[in-house]
Amino acid sequence: MARNGGVAWMRTTEKIDGYDLSTSDTEEVHVLAVDDSLVDRKVIERLLRISSCKVTAVDSGRRALQYLGLDEEIQKKETNGFDGLKVDLIITDYCMPGMTGYELLKKVKESSAFREIPVVIMSSENVIARIDRCLEEGAEDFIVKPVKLSDVKRIIDYTTTELREGEQREGARARRRGINKRKQREGDDDLSSSPPSTLSSSTSSSPSSSIQSATAPLSPSTLDSPTRRLKMTSSE
Amino acid sequence: MDFVNQLQRKFIDYSSSLHREGIVDDQFTQLRKLEDENSPHFVMEVASLFFEDCEKLINNMAIALEQKQGVDFKQIDECIHQLKGSSSSIGAMRVKNACIAFRSFSDAQNREGCLRCLQQLSHEYSLLKNKLQTLFLLEQQIVAAGGSIPRVH
Questions:
Q1: Is B138 helix (H, G, I), strand (E, B) or coil?
Q2: Choosing among A36, A37, A39, which should be mutated to test the B contact, i.e. which has the most B CBs within 10 A?
Q3: Does the residue A179 lie in any domain?
Q4: Residue B103 domain flag
Q5: Is residue A39 part of a domain?
Q6: How far apart are CA A128 and CA A135, in angstroms?
Q7: Rounded CA separation B51/B55 (Å)
C-alpha cells in the first residue's frame, strides 16, 4: 500500500492524540453484555475476555441503552452520545425484568446511530418462535444457554471478520476516491447497500445486516450455528 | 513435591466423583477450561456468587410459601426461573433438575408439592455447596503448597 503524505500525517496524529483512527487487526472487539443474572454476567464476561474482547457488562436493557446514549430520559450533552468506547457487538439475555432482550434489540435496530451494531440474543429456552422473532427483528444470532466458549468464539470470529471486511471496503473505496477523483463511482459494487461512506466515519462498524451474511466467509465455524444456516437458506 | 502430587491426585479423583454422582455436569468442565494463571480460581468465584444467589432465592421461596393470605406462585415461578438459569450456567446439574421438578408443582399451584420440592432443592443445594467447598479447599491447598491445579484438557 503506497503511503503518501496524507497517511503519514494521520500516523503522526495517532501518536500525538493517542487516537486510533485506523483499526488494526490487534484492536479488540468491544462487547456490551446485558444480563440480569450476576452469575451469568460473570460467566459471559470471562468467556468474552478469554476471546480477547473488551467487555462492558450491565444488568438491564435500560442500563445498556444508557451506556449507548439511547435512553430518552437521560439526555446526552455530548454530540456523539457515546458514554465510552465504541461498541462493536451487543450480547443480551432474552428474559429480563423491565426491558426484555427482544425490546432492547428493537430499540437498537430502530436507532439510526446504532442499528449497524450486531445484536446476539441468549436464552435458556430453545423456542423456535422466539428465535424467529429475534432474527426477524435483526438479531445477528441466537445462543441457547448455558453459553460455551465455542459459542462465543464463533460469534467473535464472524464479528471480527465483518468488521475487518467493512474496513477493507472503506479503505478500498477511499483509495479509489483518492486515485480516481474524476470517476464518480460512488455506487457500491458489492452486495452491501451502505450509503457512500465518508472516511471520517471510521468508527462505524461494517454495514452488515442479518440477511447479508453472504459477505461473511463461509468457514465451517460460521456454518455451525443453526441460526446462521437458517438465515442462509431464508435469504436465497 | 510428593505431597503436592498427592493433593493433585485427590483433586482429580474428587472432581471425577462429582461428575459421576451428577452433582456437576459438562458445563462445570466448560467453566474449568476458562481458568488460567491469570484467573486460577474463576470457578470458585462464580460458585460463591451462585451460593449467595441460591440462598437468597430459596429463602424468598420459603417466605412466599408461608404466606397465610395466599401464595404468590408468580413470584415462586420467577425464583425458580432464576435459579434454574444460574444453576445451568454453572453446571450444577442436580440443583437444576430439582428446579425443573419444582416448576411443574408451581405451575399447578400446588402448595404442598412446592414445599416438598423446596425441601428437595435445599438438600441438593447443601450437597453441592459442601462438595464444592471440599473441592475448592483442595484447590487452595495445592496452590499454597506451591503446586498447580490440574487442568482439564
A1: helix
A2: A39
A3: no
A4: yes
A5: yes
A6: 10
A7: 6
Contact B145, B4 (CB under 8 A): yes
Return the residue in B39, B50, B89 with the most chain A beta carbons within 10 A, the one to mutate for interface testing: B89
CB of A54 closer than 8 Å to CB of A85: yes
Give domain status of residue B105, yes or no: yes
Sign of CA dihedral A59, A64, A69, A74: negative
pLDDT tens by residue, chain A, 236 residues: 444 444 444 444 444 444 444 444 447 899 999 999 999 999 999 999 999 999 999 999 999 999 998 876 655 544 444 456 799 999 999 999 999 999 999 999 999 999 999 999 999 989 999 999 999 999 999 999 999 999 999 999 988 888 788 878 888 887 877 766 555 554 444 444 444 444 343 344 444 444 444 444 444 444 455 555 454 444 43
Could you give the ipTM of this predicted complex? 0.94
Structural domains counted in chain B: 1
- By Cβ distance, the residue of B30, B39, B89 closest to A39 is B89
Q: What is the CATH number of the domain that holds A51?
A: 3.40.50.2300
B71 found inside a domain: yes
Question: What residues of B are in contact with residue A43 (Cβ under 8 Å)?
Answer: 31, 46, 89-90
Range of the domain at A147: 30-171
Judge: B85–A148 Cβ closer than 8 Å, yes or no. Answer: no
